[in-house]
Amino acid sequence: MPDFVDLYLTATWQTLQMVSVSALVSALFGLALALLLVTTGPGDLYARPWLNRGVGSVVNVFRSVPFIILLVVLLPFTRLVVGTTIGVWAAAVPLSVAGIPFFARIAEVSLREVDRGLIEAVQAMGGRRRDVLWQVLLPEALPGIVSGLTITLVAMIGSSAMAGAVGAGGLGDVAIRYGYQRFDTQVMVSVLLGLIVLVSVVQTVGDALARRLNHRQ
Amino acid sequence: MNARADILLSTPPAAAPREAEVLVEFQQLSRQFQAGGRSVQALQEVEFGIQRGEIFGIIGRSGAGKSTLLRIINRLEQPSSGRVLVGGRDLSGLNEAQLAQARRGIGMIFQHFNLLSSRTVAQNIGLPLKIAGVAAVEIEQRVDELLRLVGLEGKRDVYPARLSGGQKQRVGIARALAHRPDILLCDEATSALDPETTQSILALLRDINRQLNVTVVLITHEMAVIREICDRVAVLEAGRVVELGPVWQVFGAPQAEATRALLASLVHELPPDVQGRIASEPATAQSELLLDVRLDGVSGQDPALGPLVAALGPATRLLHGGVERIQGRAQGRLVLACAPQSRNRLGDLARQLAVPVGNIRILGYLDHA
Ligand SMILES: Nc1ncnc2c1ncn2[C@@H]1O[C@H](COP(=O)(O)OP(=O)(O)O)[C@@H](O)[C@H]1O
Ligand SMILES: [Mg+2]
């Protein structure tokens, strides 16, 4: 059935688009947010305790709203940003909004794990704060950040299927319309297989990259 | 040999006879910390100078304020009051760029090396130059020089995780010397190394001091390190300098109680973890009394442990020592830790062990941190 193959390929492509755009946005803004969280606390490099607490609270708020609710609540915002509330690009908005704080918290953990002694060493050798950021924090945390990005991507693939339920297209959309509503087991199974392959590829590549970057043993 | 040949063959005098120049000067330096609502006086009115070209040691028990003092020199730590002059200059009130610039004249090495795991040996050594904006070609050249200096030519492109502790510290030293500093600060730089590696690192520090005329300030809790390479030593106790002078003088005739307690470890070759915790006074109710008992075999009896425990109490621990039989007589030394109250029962102990009471010496008190 060429119809189904066509549908299947289109849906896969849509999922890839949704996830990659949202992942890119989440990686950039999430990392910036993580850096802000680890460098502005009391006694940190750029100590701004009030800003730190404020940003921390906002992150917590977004982390605690279930994705399915975020999808709905963000509808006006989504229309503002992409001009529509359906389709791949519309789905990328809630996916990114959920992904940014999610990835920020994971990246934050990796950045906090960087040994304070290394920061001191770079300060002692005549490094400024920006050197601490670029020469110590980011490169030392990089393997952990890459692993965190892998986790974020996998979570996003799952969420993107949910976004499919509200008219975003993608594999989730196919699974619900054909597999769930029409009891088409074959479609359901193929969609699931597609998702499994996608997640496995992301995880394998992410793990390999993190291992390559890690020189700690 | 005629006078001319004499001049040609003789090496110039090692130390030019000139006025000693004070390179680091502490003036009425104090530092408090606020920790959990409590105020800790880490340094109190410290006042002394470190001379250019010397190897200066700072000793003291753990928590005496050694690291704080060292870190105030390069401003990783700030004074609460008082001043520190480095090369006649007060580094307080500098902006970020000026302070960074000033720190390039002060190298520092650490107990746990603090090498960046994401960078190779060469990249670690070149980092101080890179962040100072030195050209890549120049960095390459300097890194090669430094690798040769510390004897790691073959490890250029290896990551630190693949190095031994001694090699890591060599990388740390090379990195600290990248900007040709006047001063090298060493915070327990050999404390994570085995004795043999410690010796080789100390030898390297001595060479650097002599050949590059780098003033070395080192802190350690290992008395043997001080004896090995330092010219002068300051003894810190609870944030105060209680003794300061040439090593031969301080170690030969210690004046302060604190110094004697620290030196006990040198004389008695106590394990390093015990060394750092000996105090002249019991710090807490859990402190143990440390005794050194010399068995001279005069009585001809083997030391019985039952009576020993009876005299000192059931909590008595044997920390160090042993007994040798020389012509059938038990000779040796025991270092014991026991309850502080046993201080009053030393006569009893001497009788039980059949040794003169003069053979039992109090080394100090052992803290449990
Ligand atoms: N950042 C800090 N905050 C609170 N207390 C500190 C801090 N740094 C050091 N101290 C305290 O100051 C005293 C001296 O510490 P330190 O200089 O590290 O001693 P040493 O190096 O001789 O072991 C200790 O009581 C320690 O607990
Ligand atoms: Mg210390």
Secondary structure elements and pairings:
The complex is a heterodimer of chains A (217) and B (369).
Chain A: H1 2-39, H2 49-64, H3 67-73, H4 75-82, H5 88-112, H6 116-124, H7 129-168, H8 171-180, H9 185-213
Chain B: H1 3-9, E1 22-35, E2 38-51, E3 55-59, H2 66-73, E4 81-86, E5 89-90, H3 96-103, E6 106-110, H4 121-131, H5 136-150, H6 165-176, E7 183-187, H7 195-211, E8 215-219, H8 223-229, E9 232-237, E10 240-246, H9 247-252, H10 257-268, H11 272-275, E11 278-279, E12 288-295, H12 305-312, E13 317-326, E14 329-338, H13 346-353, E15 360-366
Parallel strand pairs in B: 3-8, 3-9, 6-7, 7-8
Antiparallel strand pairs in B: 1-2, 1-4, 4-5, 9-10, 11-15, 12-14, 12-15, 13-14
Helix pairs in contact in B: 4-5, 4-6, 5-6, 6-7, 12-13
The complex binds adenosine-5'-diphosphate and magnesium ion.
Give unreliable regions of chain B as ranges.
1-17
**CA-based shape of chain B:** elongated
Q: Structurally, how many domains make up the residues of chain B?
A: 2
What small molecules does this complex bind? adenosine-5'-diphosphate, magnesium ion
The level of helicity of chain A is: over 70%
Which protein chains are joined by the largest interface, and how many residues does each one contribute?
A-B, 23 and 32 residues
CATH architecture of chain A: Orthogonal Bundle
CATH class of chain A: Mainly Alpha
Average pLDDT number of chain B = 88
User: Mind summarizing the main beta sheet of chain B?
Assistant: 6 strands, mixed
List segments of chain A where confidence is low: pLDDT < 50 over at least 5 consecutive residues.
none
GO cellular component, one term (chain A): plasma membrane
Keywords (chain A): Cell membrane, Membrane, Transmembrane, Transmembrane helix, Transport
Family (chain A): Belongs to the binding-protein-dependent transport system permease family. CysTW subfamily.
Membrane topology (chain A): Multi-pass membrane protein
